[in-house]
């Protein structure tokens, strides 16, 4: 969107240099400290970033030389198994973590208390996993390289539909594990409807979006948990224990408005009415730019209206997702190289 492609290349190369057994860093720190790696989704988001870079630049040379080997390495390690119990199961789905470590973006932890335990097969991780494999197969074809995983996405899709979709409830379960199925109403399911490659039917997308809109949407973001859930915390304040206890238990996150808008437009076939509504979802952020952190989008908001801004006064992923959704889904500015890549893939 911003056409700062050299900076994008620099960022992608930095992550490639620090990749360890297929896992990208979760965070970097000033002062020369080593990055931390307690994450299962960073590597999968990296693969998605490679795809987005490609459809905005058509820079196959850079992808071939610098990024494709890292993507291939990620797929290999995630299939074979790597640190933090990250491994593909027999059903093709990705399993990760343990009760004592937080690996998804819902990673609040106070001493030994993992506030939102999501070990096992998490819904957004498997949406990202499927998306990553399709991206890898697509790039392999563009580079005229053979991929051994052409049949795997269909297996993953079948398992995902069987284990995550609840036809009676009309939404996706949040986590499936040996402990059972967690059917909490959370926003993580939005990624299954908004990523470039989705396993859902349009009707399923429509029902997911409807569920999220009715229970999780607030003026400046999407709640991390339904207010109808007994564990819901609608106000983010107090000491560390209280704040971290609410962080992913009801607090609304600005970055989630991006996947929500994309899923909403896709579920409605990108018709004119959905474009107008997407614009209405974006409009409140014009006021937010003048509140809390002037010129920026806040990290989080209370889950209870009036959705008071909390946390960091400026967060990169909140700003980035609102900018992306506004550009792609409201203004309908398509990535410049998307058609070129699609034509090359088809050829």
Please specify the SSE layout and strand pairing.
Layout: H1 5-18, H2 42-57, H3 60-80, E1 87-88, E2 94-95, E3 109-110, E4 113-114, E5 121-122, H4 123-142, H5 152-164, E6 165-166, E7 171-172, E8 175-177, E9 180-182, H6 190-194, H7 202-215, E10 217-218, E11 221-223, H8 240-247, E12 252-253, H9 257-267, H10 272-282, H11 284-288, E13 300-301, E14 309-310, H12 316-330, H13 338-346
Antiparallel strand pairs: 1-2, 3-4, 5-8, 6-7, 8-9, 10-11, 11-12, 12-13, 13-14
Helix pairs in contact: 1-2, 1-3, 2-3, 2-4, 3-4, 4-5, 7-9, 9-10, 9-12, 10-12
How does this model look, in words?
This protein has 347 residues and is α+β, with helices and mostly antiparallel strands. It has one domain: Alpha/alpha barrel (Glycosyltransferase). It contains 13 helices and 14 strands. The strands form 5 sheets. It has a 5-stranded antiparallel beta sheet with strand order 10-11-12-13-14. Strands 5-8-9 form a 3-stranded antiparallel beta sheet. Strands 1-2 form a two-stranded antiparallel ribbon. A hairpin with a 4-residue loop joins strand 6 and strand 7. Helix 2 crosses helix 4. The two termini are 27 Å apart.
How do the SSEs run, as a string of H and E? HHHEEEEEHHEEEEHHEEHEHHHEEHH
What is the class in the CATH system? Mainly Alpha
Q: How many distinct helices?
A: 13
Strand fraction equals 5-15%
Inertia-based shape: globular
Q: How many E strands?
A: 14
Detail the poorly predicted runs. none
Distance between the termini: 27 Å
The average pLDDT is 95
Identify the strand order in the major beta sheet: 10-11-12-13-14
Briefly note the structural class of the backbone.
alpha+beta
> How many independent structural domains?
1
Helix content: 40-55%
Major β-sheet annotation: 5 strands, antiparallel
Query: What is the CATH architecture descriptor?
Result: Alpha/alpha barrel
Radius of gyration: 19 Å
| CATH fold name | Glycosyltransferase
